[in-house]
């Protein structure tokens, strides 16, 4: 994970945001293009990192992995016309994040959710982890596998997170933490690390969006 995050960052950036969709929200019997066509103005995953979530925003670089869902055959859109599942996902990412360095990987095997995996899934999921329009009339034996999408992003949303952390640490009354510095941390080293954190947050600034997020952090 560390090496992957490093490969996505440049220009002084060191942090990546994690996203996932567990399970991937595909209807039973639908294909990947069918599902992605529903998410033309948003993304089919949720942010896992503790940043303020927005709708589709810009992204410097990202790596996306999808497993357990097929491409489909009917050519009803540009996505449906792609020749492979990899091309479908790549086309979708380029459309949603133009100008972004995006790498994508597709695995045919879904994620197994057999015991001891906890069965916390909705009754609207089939045994293969696909969504149903309504609860089944029969009793399900449990979800055995699920399609999953995960992403790691170097994104401007990390500016607010890192700058807020810098502000929170800057408000600490270090004289109250004698045991902390007794462990070997010097006050000067602490202040240097604090400034490095602010510099790192500035690496994720992007125009007015960054100015606005910093103003919000100042007002907290």
From TrEMBL:
**GO CC term (a single one):** mitochondrion
**GO biological process annotations for this chain's record?**
mitochondrion organization
**InterPro entries noted in UniProt:** DML1/Misato
Name the UniProt record assigns to this protein = MSTO1 protein
- Source organism per UniProt: Galbula dea
At the highest ranks, the source species' classification is: Eukaryota, Metazoa, Chordata, Craniata, Vertebrata
Name of the gene encoding the protein in the UniProt record: Msto1_0
